[in-house]
Write a structure and sequence with these properties.
With about 375 residues, the protein is of the alpha/beta class. It contains 15 helices and 11 strands.
């Protein structure tokens, strides 16, 4: 090869690698969107990938009460639909302003149950241009597990993940006993391919999972006619426990020191913030906090002592959530009554984070082994 040919070859190689670098940099700068439309809330994150995860550049959260009245009519009401579409129009503007290149927008229990869900999704598409995907309960449970993976202790052999939503509650029991300690977090993220109940294709073995069609709104609505606060709470707790009878681990015996519960929901993060005595919610202090059954019950007992008006005036609960906080507490206390723990880990994370990770990994802008 002549000197000129060598120079030309080097120039072409330099141009190729420069081009590849530009492509990779452009790819890493691409923004991703994830929206979780639940029974109560509409929440969205916009993020850019970075080494080991992502950086949130914009967000949105609004209480839309999409499932209001669903228990009685079986349908999404015109009022709740219009309220939700107004929120989704704001999300659309944020997605456009940020030039989001990839997005996944999902709806959960309210849309799974509503007879007019397809009509609602079509209306959203016409009025906002957003395509909403109604996901099945198993995918919702999987996404909850994946989002909580960073909080799993290397010492944990038996893991129970609970996700208390507005319309449903998901519980997933996972056996991590055969997984090497340093791989336990990463084995959970691989469950995005699906739950393998027999454990044949996954290191993390999903022993059982259940989606109970009762969340903070739907359970509250079941007992609207009960006036006495304490009686209502007791009935809600009993009723939810009755709905756990189909969970095969109802009588499961576990070693308490190697057993971990991770809980994700507004109820649990609010309980944690109240336990810490925060005057204003601070995610950095709540996410990852560990609480015992006794500590959680202490906060719940205080909620019962101060009553409806006291909870309404509690800064961390407020006017919008005072009516549903006790139904969420009833769900959590029912679970802890069956599986008391010294280590409930509070997770301020959920479907949106999992949706972002899934999209970024599919595009190879982050790797499974570097996430977390």
């Amino acid at each position: 090869m002549t000197r000129n040919e060598v120079a030309l070859n080097n120039q072409q190689n330099k141009a190729f690698f420069t081009k590849q670098t530009v492509v990779l940099e452009a790819k890493s700068r691409a923004l991703y969107g994830a929206l979780d439309l639940g029974t109560n809330s509409c929440r969205m994150l916009i993020a850019e990938p970075r080494e080991g995860g992502f950086n949130v550049v914009d967000s949105f959260s609004k209480l839309v009460r999409l499932g209001e009245g669903l228990e009685i009519t079986g349908q999404l009401s015109d009022t709740s639909i219009e309220r939700t579409i107004r929120a989704l129009k704001i999300c659309k503007r944020k997605l456009e302003c940020n030039n989001v290149s990839s997005m996944r927008l999902v709806a959960t229990e309210a849309c799974r149950r509503a007879r007019n869900a397809d009509t609602f999704v079509a209306k959203v598409l016409i009025e906002t241009g957003l395509e909403i995907d109604i996901i099945e309960a198993e995918e919702e449970a999987r996404l909850a597990v994946i989002s909580c993976a960073p909080l799993v202790s290397e010492k944990t052999e038996q893991l129970l993940v609970i996700d208390i939503g507005g319309g449903s509650t998901e519980l997933v029991w996972i056996d991590l006993n055969i997984v090497p300690k340093r791989q336990r977090k990463y084995s959970l993220i691989r469950l995005q391919r699906g739950f393998q109940i027999d454990g044949a294709q996954s290191e993390a073995q999903v022993v059982d999972w259940i989606s109970v069609p009762l969340g903070v709104s739907t359970l509250r609505d079941q007992f609207q006619d009960v006036d006495d606060d304490v009686s209502k709470y007791a009935l809600m707790s009993w009723y939810f426990e009755e709905n756990l009878m189909n969970f095969s681990l109802y009588d499961y015996a576990h070693k308490r020191q190697k057993f971990q519960i991770i809980g994700t929901s507004g109820t649990i993060t609010t309980l944690a913030a109240c336990y810490l005595g925060l005057q204003k919610y601070e995610r950095t202090k709540v996410d990852g906090l560990e609480m015992t059954t006794d500590q959680i019950e202490g906060v719940i007992n205080r909620y019962l002592e101060i009553g409806v008006e006291g909870r309404r005036n509690e800064p961390l609960i407020g006017q919008e959530r005072h009516a549903s906080i006790m139904s969420g507490c009833a769900i959590l206390q029912s679970i802890l009554r069956l599986w008391p723990t010294d280590k409930l880990t509070v997770a301020d994370r959920g479907l949106r984070e999992s949706l972002l990770y899934a999209q970024m990994m599919a595009d190879d802008v982050i790797e499974t082994k570097t996430v977390y």
